[in-house]
Amino acid sequence: LFKPINDPHVCSAWRRKTFGDDRPFILYVGKPTKRRNLPNLFRAFAQLKKRDEIPHRLLLVGSSLPGISFAGEIRSLGLETEVVDLPYLEHDEIVQAYNACEMLVYPSSYEGFGMPALEAMACGTPVIALNNTAFPEFAGDVAMLLPDAQPDTLAAGMLKIIRDSTLRARMTEAGP
Fold it and tell me: How many other CB atoms sit within 10 Å of the CB of residue 148?
């Protein structure tokens, strides 16, 4: 199921259906646990929007749990129209999201494995994760492994993938 979709029209149609237009987006898939550093991801994304004027949106999939909301933080960063939160997607739609995004960012400080990173790589999606726990074992030669989840570190990694088409192409080819 998790494999590249080599038809750009399918990815474009998914973006239009999901967002109402065909802008690029950065993806996060997973629960909103503290170790996943979502507040830092939001700050990094806000930096890129303001400083580098990237056209991207940020799509969160599966990050909604009862009693947990990032709406206040997103609002305080001025990202209400730039961050889209989908509580749940079926596996076939997650495959489309992986294929339609510019990259997956999975800034977890600790994972036993990290299935979203592996699924995204299988789809040919560039992945950013942290250089810790299981990630170096299964993603070390493919993903961009960052030393920490500080906003500046995350922003620099995301910007490098956005601006470096050669890097994106290498990650897309090596992932599957």
Answer: 14
Whole-model pTM: value is: 0.95
Instruction: Give me the mean pLDDT over the 5-21 stretch.
Output: 97
Beta strands in the chain (DSSP E): 25-29, 57-61, 83-86, 103-106, 127-130, 144-146
147-167 average pLDDT score: 98
Distance CA 143, CA 138 (A): 9
Q: Tell me the CA distances in angstroms from 68 to 57, 109, 123, one per residue in order.
A: 21, 19, 30
User: What pLDDT is attached to residue 49?
Assistant: 98
The backbone torsions φ and ψ at residue 47, rounded to the nearest 5 degrees and listed phi first, read -60, -50
Q: What is the DSSP string of 91-125?
A: HHHHHHHHHHSSEEEE--S--SS-HHHHHHHHTT-
- Helix axes 165-174 and 151-163, enclosed angle (nearest 10): 90
Query: Order of strands, edge to edge, in the sheet holding 103-106?
Result: 83-86, 57-61, 25-29, 103-106, 127-130, 144-146
Task: Show the CA angle centred on residue 90, arms to residues 18 and 86, nearest 5°.
Answer: 45
